[in-house]
Design brief:
Elements lengths: L11 E5 L18 E10 L13 E8 L5
Parallel strand pairs: 1-2, 2-3
Length: 70
């Protein structure tokens, strides 16, 4: 998708009420991401993609994480 075109420069991403998104693994390709917010009625399997974001300074969320590993 389109996010691949900005992967090297994107620093802030906010996903709000996008209830059709269930796979956020593409976010792990955003190596320069510093701020990430995900809110809505989403259910995602885990937050493992966060481990691949070395520059992430702030993460906030209000979604259901199915594996419970927060």
């Amino acid at each position: 998708g389109a996010i691949k075109h900005v992967a090297g420069s994107l620093e802030t991403l906010s996903i709000v009420n996008c209830h059709h998104i269930s796979d956020l693994d593409i976010i792990e390709t955003l190596g320069n991401l510093k701020y990430l917010r995900i809110t809505g009625n989403n259910e995602i399997s885990d937050l493992n993609f966060l481990l691949k974001l070395p520059n992430l300074k702030h993460f906030s969320f209000s979604i259901n994480v199915l594996d419970g590993n927060l």
